[in-house]
Every structure is written in structure tokens, then in C-alpha cells.
Amino acid sequence: MAKRDLISEFRTLRDLLVGVQRTDDNGPVLTIEDVVVVSESADVIEGRVLFTDYRAAGRPARTSDFHYEVKQLAVDGPEDAADLLIVNLEEEVLAID
């Protein structure tokens, strides 16, 4: 099994997420402004998604932390991780409504 390059995968994840805007029938829900590394090791990168929550008064900037790991269940690379993070953020924002 080849060793995974988490930093490279994280860069791809960031490229996939930054600028993504999610909407529903009522308009914009959120826009991902940035994805940053909080800490890293050989097996895990702790990341933070910075996003605008259009459902909150004044459209506050919010953050959500996550772990990008070598051994993740149901996530096979940055594309799957990006899809999962977007779904989780949408659920988090819409749950407040």
C-alpha cells in the first residue's frame, strides 16, 4: 500500500471547497470562504472551515473543525471528504432554522 500524502490531499480538499456556495429554495445558505490547517501529524490533519452563514442575522462568519485522517471510514480521498464536509455544514446551518 502506497503512503498517502495528506498535505497534498488537504490542498486538493481546500481547492474543492473554497468558494463553494450552497443554496436552497429560500436563497443562499452558506459560502465556504477558506479551509485552513490547524495542526498536522503524519496520520491526521486538523482543519477548520471558515464560512458565511446566510441564515444568521448579519451573515456572521462561522467556523467548523474537522479531522482529515489516513484511515477514515467511508471517505476515500479529498473528493469524498469535500462532499461529506459540505453536507455536514449544510445540516449544521439548516438545523438552526
Features:
97 residues; alpha+beta; 4-stranded antiparallel sheet; 2 helices; single chain
Describe this structure in words.
The protein has 97 residues and is an alpha+beta fold. It has helices at 6-17, 78-96, and strands at 21-24, 27-40, 44-53, 61-69. The chain has a four-stranded antiparallel sheet. Strand 2 and strand 3 form a beta hairpin. Helix 1 (6-17) crosses helix 2 (78-96).
Task: Set out the fold topology.
Blueprint: H1 6-17, E1 21-24, E2 27-40, E3 44-53, E4 61-69, H2 78-96
Antiparallel strand pairs: 1-2, 2-3, 3-4
Helix pairs in contact: 1-2
Return the structural class.
Answer: alpha+beta
**Major beta sheet, specifics?**
4 strands, antiparallel
Main sheet: strand order? 1-2-3-4
**Rg for CA atoms:** 14 Å
**Helix and strand succession?**
HEEEEH
Poorly predicted runs: none
- In total, how many beta strands? 4
Looking at the structure, what is the overall shape?
elongated
